[in-house]
Amino acid sequence: MAAFKDISIFITGCNRGVGFALVKQILSLPDSPKVLFATCRSLKSDNSRELRELAEKNPILHLLEFDVTNALQLENVVKEVEAKLAGSGLNLLINNAGIYDLKNSEYGVVSCTLDEVTRDLMMKVYETNAVAPLMIVKAFLPLLRRAAKDPPFQPQATVVNISSDDGSVALNVEGGHYQYKCSKAAVNMLTVSLSLDYAKDGITVVCVDPGWIKTDMGGKAAPLTLPQAIPSLVKLIGSLDLSKTGSFLQYNGNTMPW
Ligand code: NDP
């Protein structure tokens, strides 16, 4: 993908953290996209206020309410995106929404060790981090295929699955964190399968570790700030093409070990 000029982009989990920073960074680029669909779980809650304010100032930014685990909402969101694209395809899909340990959730627990991990926690994190991205790609496949065929951008359809170094089996030297590590390892595997299945359609599929960043999930000990990591991540995404399909990359372009 030669940067973002005149393309259509869809990103999940945009009200805070990496997702919100991605939206802000893409909107600040001189080559702006044609349309940027930014989704979040609730457009009414206080934690989406900054995103709503950004949309008021940016006509290309379209906000959609979307819980990535909600199949009915996914169907409706795809219909809304298709209607807005009016015959064009979707050029870039970024599966960013994710959870780590549900410590601020209805579970009210931090689960890392085998003692602490539960079936419910495994299933919930796996559903959000691994099942949802796959179902989202499946639902958007016709629009991605359309974008890959649309001249003059051909091939111009890319899926970026936000993974983590925690999804790397090779880098797992501390154990624990069962729910998160397994979910991100699954993201890596489904990325490779998608890349193999859809290269023939001109669709690039990669997984990317955004770096350990200070966000609600990354925590205060993280070495990177969003302004340090996100411009590099956006530059990397803008440089992707089919030659990179099936890769596991770090935000700075380095190849990650599986
Ligand atoms: P945050 O916890 O700061 O933000 C997570 C985002 O995902 C929020 O917008 C949240 O929405 C959204 N989200 C969670 N569950 C759902 C859901 N079911 N439906 C829709 N949206 C949902 O995390 P980060 O921004 O740090 O992480 C973003 C991505 O980057 C994740 O995939 C994460 O695994 C990955 N990552 C992050 C690292 C880091 O150091 N920060 C390191 C490696 C990977 P809501 O406000 O509604 O909860």
From TrEMBL:
Entry keyword set: NADP, Oxidoreductase
Keyword Repeat: no
Pfam families with a match to the protein in the record: adh_short (PF00106)
SUPFAM superfamilies: NAD(P)-binding Rossmann-fold domains
GO cellular component assignments: cytoplasm
Protein name: Uncharacterized protein
Originating species: Paramuricea clavata (Red gorgonian)
Top-level taxon of the source organism: Eukaryota
Example of a GO MF term: oxidoreductase activity
